[in-house]
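DEPOSITED CHAIN:
***
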Amino acid sequence: MSLAHRYDFVLIFDVKDGNPNGDPDAGNMPRLDAESGHGLVTDVSLKRKVRNFVGLVKEQEERAPVDGEKRFEIYVREKAILNHQNQRAYSALNLAVAPEEQAQAATENEATDAKKKKPAKDKRKGSADEVALARQWMCQNFFDVRTFGAVMSTGVNCGQVRGPVQLTFARSVEPIVALEHSITRMAVATEAEAEKQQGDNRTMGRKHTVPYGVYVAHGFVSSFLARQTGFGADDLELLWQALGQMFEHDRSAARGEMATRGLYVFQHDSELGNAPAHALFERLAITPKEAGAVARSFDAYSVGFDSRGLDIGETVQAAPGVKLTRKF
């Protein structure tokens, strides 16, 4: 069932004594806006958690698909080789395309041609019709392709997909404090380290945390792009479920206490939309209850729309033709 409405949504989550999204270029410190001190979590990190949740809840279903159809596989998953995923579309559709060995040869030819300063011939691309069929197959079988989109032209060419669901970076409501802790492991990895420490056998390390922070991300769902990828009402409901519960199944030593605190969805009567997204987002405010106080729990904040609190399950008229519902 295709979508008949435009959706904009606000995701609110918090972290306590954890690292919501470390920056590998900064020693895995929590990501920060250097000018304001507000914490950041990338859209890529949030999408990864959605992918992991969908893969978790749909794993059994995908092992025994009804009528041989798989709809909830994950394209960008851990340790996946994307060109192998692309090849599956051509194999399933019995399309003639250069196999991986020829694609590799084409890559080597490109490198040789580049040295000769001659344009390389792209032997990896199928015909326009083949690419369109492969793209459709990928959308039908992979949840994250038809949801977030993907670039699938890196080897065996399945084209590109612009996803109907887009997320922004999440930004903390207030500036955060990024702490660094020294930690000790009572063991070493090698005999050489043990000899060097004369049997003390300790390994020192560092750990980074945010004492507490509330983060807000914005998202968008386009019914027009959904129609192109086959993203339907069942996919949308699975997305809402994933955003609400994804942190519950993403526990780690660095993210022991992260939780979704609210998922607010603006549903427009029309597909084009009845109000600008930014105007709706600005009217949903997350504010400290006591200005200047040090927050260490979500109880220190209030969520309101036009100065009104929102209860679970409450639906309000956000604007002419737009209703606001709390999904989680």
About this structure: The longest strand covers residues 203-221. DSSP finds nine helices and 16 strands in the chain. The chain has a mean pLDDT of 87.
